[in-house]
Design goal:
Shape: globular
Helix content: 25-40%
Order of helices and strands: EEEHHHEH
Structural class: alpha+beta
Oligomer: single chain
Strand content: 15-25%
Number of domains: 1
Number of strands: 4
Length: 120
């Protein structure tokens, strides 16, 4: 069974991140996508395999103790990039490029915060 997450860039659906039965990630752009997520993944009609998708999306996940806390809270492996992105509601503070990743669009209003506010 393949799992999928919609990927949004600046509030527009850009593509779909999928995870196959072996846990490998793939990414494909929507047909109307205009902006690339990465210079290594320009907009095209073909699917990017795990050798392109996994390094990019893995880099959006938290690191260190933040990753440990999130993985523990949601009972997922720290190595499972797809599940981590799914569980954190898709918001990634590590990237201004990828505004959010989600199963479906939210009506949530995210706001930028400083590290000080994030700890409170």
């Amino acid at each position: 069974m393949t799992r999928e997450l919609n990927v949004y860039l600046y509030e527009e659906k850009t593509g779909v991140l999928s995870e196959d039965q072996l846990g490998h990630l793939q990414f494909r752009y929507e047909s109307g996508a205009k902006r690339p997520l990465s210079v290594r993944m320009p907009v095209c009609g073909e699917e990017y395999d795990r050798f392109y998708a996994e390094p990019f999306f893995d880099n959006l996940t938290p690191e260190g103790s933040a990753l440990e806390i999130i993985a523990g809270k949601f009972h997922v492996s720290e190595d499972n990039t797809f599940s981590i992105l799914h569980k954190i509601g898709g918001f990634s503070m590590k990237s201004d490029l990828c505004e959010y990743i989600a199963q479906r669009p939210h009506n949530h209003q995210y706001r930028r915060t400083t590290g000080r506010r994030a700890r409170n």
